[in-house]
Fold this protein.
Amino acid sequence: MRPVKSSTTFWLAAAALAAATALSGGLEAAQSAPDSENGRYSMTPMPEGVLRLDTRTGTVSTCTRNGAGWACYAVPDERTALDAEIGRLQAEVERLKGQLAAAPTVPGKIDEALPKSDPLTKAEPKSAERKSAEGERKIEIPLPSDQDVDRVMSFLEKAWRRLIDMANRVQKDVSGKI
């Protein structure tokens, strides 16, 4: 966003108003002023400058002083981003519902849910159904051949021997230096 720069005249007028308020009773003058004269912005000091709240729109800005004067930058509003994401998701849900309603029905499917079996009654499915279900779930894991096992064992033996040789060399190097 572009910084909103205030003019020097505005700040001089604000300083004059603050001085007049301080001289003429301070709180009484501020309390008796109508809303339009009281100001559109609510300012809160912070270490970097001022936090500005626009009482009409609810926009929050941070204002800092730089070489050319004061610059105010709007603070990102997370609520706007969240509302936009919610709207996008709602539109996507509606689009998917439309696609689902327009899609052809799959033969063999039923619209009603199947009854769940009660775990306390331990209802067993029919034996023919059970056998077909077991046949569908059967997973075959191929076991390694003897040749594959021999190759792995040979590799592990070579690696173990190299590790022992390396440990012996390190021990000799350390004992020779002491």
In short: The CA atoms of residues 128 and 134 lie 10 Å apart.
